[in-house]
Write a structure and sequence with these properties.
By secondary structure, the protein is α/β, with parallel strands linked by helices. It has seven helices and six strands; from the N terminus they run βαβααβαβααββα. The chain has a single domain (5-181), classed as Flavodoxin domain (Rossmann fold), CATH 3.40.50.360. Residues 3-170 form the Flavodoxin-like fold domain.
């Protein structure tokens, strides 16, 4: 039985991000395949066929990334542009992603209070993630409520441990949901 695929897009996963590194490790410990885009494609030359095969095989998709200037890192955007092609991700005959759950797992430097209409960001995190959400909605994926860890620049070890327990729970729920909702693709 296939498992959710965790696609990580952090330009310095093993260097500067203890949060995204911890999240990736939680996914690995849960037995999920973790695909590090920056490790695989440092030159931004994405193997479309290989990526589509990974996605087609997965029961669900998790996009894990830090929020940079209210958007995803550059390689994730490039990956979306290259991999989500007509006939695979969208279009009448497209079956690569249809009906699969999608979870956006985002790390954010600012505190959660900043992500309100009256907050510093002027919008909620979900509002800022709309371009990505709508992209996958167009691909007929089932959007799960996003998962976010806020204030990562100031999170202590206790807070990090609690966030990882919560993330493990979300991945477990996604895995159970993907297995329960899996339908044969014709």
């Amino acid at each position: 039985m296939s498992k959710p695929l965790v696609v990580v897009a952090h330009p310095s996963l093993n260097g500067e991000s203890r949060i995204n590194l911890a999240m990736a490790e939680v996914a690995r410990q849960a037995g999920l395949p973790v695909h590090d885009l920056y490790a695989c494609y440092p030159d931004f030359r994405i193997d479309c066929a290989a990526e589509q095969a990974r996605m087609a095989e997965a029961s669900a998709l998790v996009l894990q990334f830090p929020l940079y200037w209210y958007a995803a890192p550059a390689l994730l955007k490039e990956w979306l542009d290259v991999v989500l092609t007509y006939g695979f991700a969208y279009g009448r005959e497209a079956r690569g992603l249809r009906g699969k759950p999608l979870l956006l797992a985002v790390s954010v430097g600012s505190p959660e209070a900043d992500f309100r209409a009256e907050g510093r960001a002027g919008a909620s995190l979900d509002e800022l993630l709309l371009p990505i959400s709508h992209t996958f909605r167009y691909c007929d994926m089932q959007l799960e409520p996003s998962y976010a860890i806020f204030g990562v620049d100031r999170i202590d070890e206790v807070g990090l441990a609690a966030a990882m327990v919560d993330y493990r729970r979300r991945l477990g729920a996604l895995t159970a949901s993907a297995l329960a909702e899996a339908q044969p693709v014709c």
